[in-house]
Design goal:
This protein has about 240 residues and is mainly α. It is built from 13 helices and no strands. The longest helix has about 35 residues, at about 210-245. Helix 6 (about 90-105) packs antiparallel against helix 7 (about 105-120) and helix 9 runs antiparallel to helix 10 (about 160-170). It is globular, with a radius of gyration of 27 Å.
Protein backbone atom coordinates (compact mmCIF):
# COMPACT_ATOMS: atom_id res chain seq x y z
CA UNK A 1 0.00 0.00 0.00
CA UNK A 2 2.75 2.48 0.93
CA UNK A 3 4.40 1.86 -2.44
CA UNK A 4 1.13 2.43 -4.28
CA UNK A 5 0.89 -1.26 -5.24
CA UNK A 6 -2.76 -1.71 -4.31
CA UNK A 7 -3.38 -4.88 -6.33
CA UNK A 8 -0.50 -6.67 -4.61
CA UNK A 9 -1.72 -5.40 -1.22
CA UNK A 10 -5.24 -6.68 -1.84
CA UNK A 11 -3.84 -10.10 -2.74
CA UNK A 12 -1.77 -10.19 0.46
CA UNK A 13 -4.74 -9.21 2.60
CA UNK A 14 -6.83 -11.92 0.97
CA UNK A 15 -4.13 -14.49 1.78
CA UNK A 16 -3.86 -13.23 5.35
CA UNK A 17 -7.55 -13.97 5.92
CA UNK A 18 -7.24 -17.37 4.24
CA UNK A 19 -4.44 -18.38 6.61
CA UNK A 20 -5.83 -16.76 9.75
CA UNK A 21 -9.56 -16.32 9.29
CA UNK A 22 -10.24 -16.99 12.98
CA UNK A 23 -8.64 -13.67 13.98
CA UNK A 24 -11.72 -11.46 13.73
CA UNK A 25 -9.78 -8.31 14.61
CA UNK A 26 -7.79 -8.89 11.41
CA UNK A 27 -10.90 -7.93 9.40
CA UNK A 28 -11.11 -4.55 11.12
CA UNK A 29 -7.37 -3.95 10.75
CA UNK A 30 -7.45 -4.69 7.02
CA UNK A 31 -10.37 -2.32 6.47
CA UNK A 32 -8.62 0.48 8.37
CA UNK A 33 -5.45 -0.03 6.33
CA UNK A 34 -7.37 0.06 3.05
CA UNK A 35 -9.44 3.07 4.13
CA UNK A 36 -6.25 4.97 4.95
CA UNK A 37 -5.32 4.63 1.26
CA UNK A 38 -8.78 5.54 -0.08
CA UNK A 39 -9.81 1.95 -0.73
CA UNK A 40 -12.88 1.95 1.51
CA UNK A 41 -15.04 0.12 -1.01
CA UNK A 42 -12.58 -2.78 -1.22
CA UNK A 43 -12.37 -2.76 2.57
CA UNK A 44 -16.10 -3.09 3.14
CA UNK A 45 -15.97 -6.79 2.23
CA UNK A 46 -13.79 -7.32 5.30
CA UNK A 47 -16.26 -5.46 7.52
CA UNK A 48 -18.98 -7.79 6.26
CA UNK A 49 -16.77 -10.72 7.31
CA UNK A 50 -16.42 -9.13 10.76
CA UNK A 51 -20.22 -9.03 11.07
CA UNK A 52 -20.31 -12.79 10.46
CA UNK A 53 -18.29 -13.41 13.64
CA UNK A 54 -20.40 -15.52 15.99
CA UNK A 55 -20.39 -15.42 19.76
CA UNK A 56 -21.33 -13.14 22.63
CA UNK A 57 -17.98 -12.53 24.31
CA UNK A 58 -17.02 -8.92 25.02
CA UNK A 59 -14.33 -9.03 22.32
CA UNK A 60 -16.65 -10.41 19.62
CA UNK A 61 -19.42 -7.97 20.47
CA UNK A 62 -16.90 -5.12 20.30
CA UNK A 63 -15.63 -6.38 16.94
CA UNK A 64 -19.13 -6.49 15.42
CA UNK A 65 -19.95 -3.13 16.98
CA UNK A 66 -16.89 -1.50 15.43
CA UNK A 67 -17.72 -3.03 12.06
CA UNK A 68 -21.24 -1.57 12.23
CA UNK A 69 -19.77 1.80 13.22
CA UNK A 70 -17.34 1.83 10.30
CA UNK A 71 -20.18 0.91 7.95
CA UNK A 72 -22.21 3.86 9.25
CA UNK A 73 -24.88 1.64 10.81
CA UNK A 74 -24.88 3.47 14.12
CA UNK A 75 -27.99 2.02 15.77
CA UNK A 76 -26.65 -1.53 15.40
CA UNK A 77 -23.24 -0.31 16.53
CA UNK A 78 -24.69 1.15 19.74
CA UNK A 79 -26.51 -2.10 20.50
CA UNK A 80 -23.44 -4.32 20.06
CA UNK A 81 -21.00 -1.96 21.77
CA UNK A 82 -23.28 -1.39 24.76
CA UNK A 83 -23.46 -5.17 25.23
CA UNK A 84 -19.66 -5.38 24.92
CA UNK A 85 -19.19 -2.77 27.65
CA UNK A 86 -21.63 -4.60 29.91
CA UNK A 87 -19.42 -7.68 29.51
CA UNK A 88 -16.29 -5.75 30.49
CA UNK A 89 -14.84 -4.30 27.29
CA UNK A 90 -13.12 -0.99 28.09
CA UNK A 91 -12.05 -0.29 24.52
CA UNK A 92 -15.66 -0.45 23.29
CA UNK A 93 -16.29 2.86 25.08
CA UNK A 94 -14.19 4.67 22.48
CA UNK A 95 -16.08 3.31 19.47
CA UNK A 96 -19.40 3.82 21.23
CA UNK A 97 -18.49 7.43 21.95
CA UNK A 98 -17.71 7.95 18.27
CA UNK A 99 -20.97 6.28 17.26
CA UNK A 100 -22.97 8.59 19.52
CA UNK A 101 -21.00 11.55 18.18
CA UNK A 102 -21.90 10.52 14.63
CA UNK A 103 -25.55 10.31 15.72
CA UNK A 104 -25.34 13.86 17.10
CA UNK A 105 -25.70 12.82 20.75
CA UNK A 106 -22.80 14.78 22.26
CA UNK A 107 -23.88 14.12 25.85
CA UNK A 108 -23.69 10.33 25.51
CA UNK A 109 -20.53 10.67 23.42
CA UNK A 110 -18.78 12.62 26.14
CA UNK A 111 -19.93 10.16 28.80
CA UNK A 112 -18.28 7.27 26.98
CA UNK A 113 -15.16 9.24 26.08
CA UNK A 114 -14.77 9.96 29.78
CA UNK A 115 -15.33 6.31 30.64
CA UNK A 116 -12.61 5.40 28.15
CA UNK A 117 -10.21 7.90 29.72
CA UNK A 118 -11.05 6.61 33.22
CA UNK A 119 -10.25 3.06 32.11
CA UNK A 120 -6.64 4.06 31.50
CA UNK A 121 -6.77 3.02 27.85
CA UNK A 122 -7.14 6.50 26.36
CA UNK A 123 -4.82 7.97 23.74
CA UNK A 124 -3.75 11.57 23.29
CA UNK A 125 -6.26 11.83 20.41
CA UNK A 126 -9.11 10.90 22.74
CA UNK A 127 -8.03 13.50 25.29
CA UNK A 128 -7.86 16.15 22.58
CA UNK A 129 -11.38 15.22 21.47
CA UNK A 130 -12.64 15.65 25.04
CA UNK A 131 -10.84 19.00 25.28
CA UNK A 132 -12.54 20.21 22.11
CA UNK A 133 -15.93 19.12 23.42
CA UNK A 134 -15.35 21.14 26.59
CA UNK A 135 -14.20 24.16 24.56
CA UNK A 136 -17.37 24.07 22.49
CA UNK A 137 -19.32 24.39 25.75
CA UNK A 138 -17.09 27.24 26.94
CA UNK A 139 -15.44 25.14 29.66
CA UNK A 140 -11.86 26.17 28.91
CA UNK A 141 -10.44 25.29 32.33
CA UNK A 142 -11.78 21.73 31.99
CA UNK A 143 -10.41 21.59 28.44
CA UNK A 144 -6.95 22.51 29.71
CA UNK A 145 -6.97 19.57 32.12
CA UNK A 146 -7.55 17.14 29.25
CA UNK A 147 -4.91 18.89 27.14
CA UNK A 148 -2.35 18.64 29.95
CA UNK A 149 -3.12 14.94 30.38
CA UNK A 150 -2.66 14.40 26.65
CA UNK A 151 0.65 16.26 26.50
CA UNK A 152 1.95 14.38 29.54
CA UNK A 153 1.38 10.94 27.99
CA UNK A 154 4.34 8.75 27.15
CA UNK A 155 3.18 8.54 23.52
CA UNK A 156 1.70 11.73 22.03
CA UNK A 157 0.72 11.37 18.38
CA UNK A 158 -1.07 14.72 18.01
CA UNK A 159 1.13 17.21 19.87
CA UNK A 160 0.46 19.98 17.34
CA UNK A 161 -3.32 19.75 17.80
CA UNK A 162 -3.03 19.67 21.59
CA UNK A 163 -0.71 22.69 21.67
CA UNK A 164 -2.96 24.63 19.29
CA UNK A 165 -5.95 24.01 21.53
CA UNK A 166 -3.85 24.84 24.59
CA UNK A 167 -3.15 28.30 23.17
CA UNK A 168 -6.86 28.95 22.65
CA UNK A 169 -7.89 27.63 26.07
CA UNK A 170 -5.15 29.62 27.84
CA UNK A 171 -6.24 32.82 26.12
CA UNK A 172 -9.86 32.28 27.16
CA UNK A 173 -8.75 31.73 30.75
CA UNK A 174 -6.55 34.86 30.50
CA UNK A 175 -3.34 32.92 31.14
CA UNK A 176 -1.33 34.69 28.46
CA UNK A 177 2.02 33.56 29.86
CA UNK A 178 1.03 29.90 29.36
CA UNK A 179 -0.46 30.73 25.95
CA UNK A 180 2.87 32.27 24.88
CA UNK A 181 4.79 29.20 26.07
CA UNK A 182 2.39 26.92 24.17
CA UNK A 183 2.65 28.88 20.91
CA UNK A 184 6.46 28.86 21.21
CA UNK A 185 6.44 25.07 21.56
CA UNK A 186 3.99 24.77 18.67
CA UNK A 187 6.18 26.91 16.40
CA UNK A 188 9.18 24.76 17.25
CA UNK A 189 7.26 21.91 15.60
CA UNK A 190 5.47 23.89 12.87
CA UNK A 191 7.69 26.93 12.13
CA UNK A 192 6.01 27.62 8.76
CA UNK A 193 2.52 28.16 10.20
CA UNK A 194 1.84 31.81 9.32
CA UNK A 195 -1.24 32.11 11.54
CA UNK A 196 0.71 30.77 14.52
CA UNK A 197 3.52 33.25 13.81
CA UNK A 198 1.03 36.13 13.95
CA UNK A 199 -0.42 34.76 17.18
CA UNK A 200 3.08 34.57 18.64
CA UNK A 201 3.74 38.24 17.84
CA UNK A 202 0.41 39.21 19.40
CA UNK A 203 1.09 37.26 22.60
CA UNK A 204 4.69 38.39 22.84
CA UNK A 205 3.73 42.07 22.56
CA UNK A 206 0.76 41.81 24.88
CA UNK A 207 1.05 42.91 28.50
CA UNK A 208 1.07 39.65 30.49
CA UNK A 209 -1.92 39.14 32.77
CA UNK A 210 -2.28 35.78 34.43
CA UNK A 211 -5.77 35.87 35.90
CA UNK A 212 -9.19 37.19 34.88
CA UNK A 213 -9.05 39.52 37.93
CA UNK A 214 -5.82 41.05 36.66
CA UNK A 215 -7.34 41.45 33.21
CA UNK A 216 -10.28 43.33 34.72
CA UNK A 217 -8.00 45.39 36.96
CA UNK A 218 -5.90 46.31 33.95
CA UNK A 219 -8.96 47.36 31.97
CA UNK A 220 -10.22 49.46 34.89
CA UNK A 221 -6.82 51.14 35.23
CA UNK A 222 -6.66 51.87 31.52
CA UNK A 223 -10.18 53.34 31.63
CA UNK A 224 -9.26 55.50 34.63
CA UNK A 225 -6.08 56.69 32.88
CA UNK A 226 -8.09 57.62 29.82
CA UNK A 227 -10.59 59.62 31.88
CA UNK A 228 -7.73 61.34 33.71
CA UNK A 229 -6.01 62.24 30.46
CA UNK A 230 -9.21 63.52 28.90
CA UNK A 231 -9.92 65.56 32.05
CA UNK A 232 -6.45 67.11 31.96
CA UNK A 233 -6.78 67.98 28.30
CA UNK A 234 -10.16 69.59 28.93
CA UNK A 235 -8.70 71.67 31.82
CA UNK A 236 -5.88 72.93 29.61
CA UNK A 237 -8.35 73.82 26.90
CA UNK A 238 -10.44 75.79 29.39
CA UNK A 239 -7.40 77.70 30.67
CA UNK A 240 -6.47 78.64 27.11
CA UNK A 241 -10.00 79.88 26.47
CA UNK A 242 -9.91 81.99 29.67
CA UNK A 243 -6.61 83.55 28.67
CA UNK A 244 -7.94 84.36 25.24
CA UNK A 245 -10.97 86.02 26.78
Amino acid sequence: LMNGESEEALADFSDAVTYNGSDWNLFIAIYENLAAYHLEEEGKAYLEKALEVKGSSAEKLACRGKAYYLLGEYEDAVKELTAAIEKGSKEANLTLARAYEAKGDSEQAQRHYEAYVASGAASSETLNTLAEMEMKKGNYAAALEYIKQGLAMETVTNREALLSNQVIACEYTADFTAALAAIEEYLAICPEDAAAQREYVFLKNRRVKTTPEEVQAGEDTEAADTEHTEGTENTEDTEDIDKAS
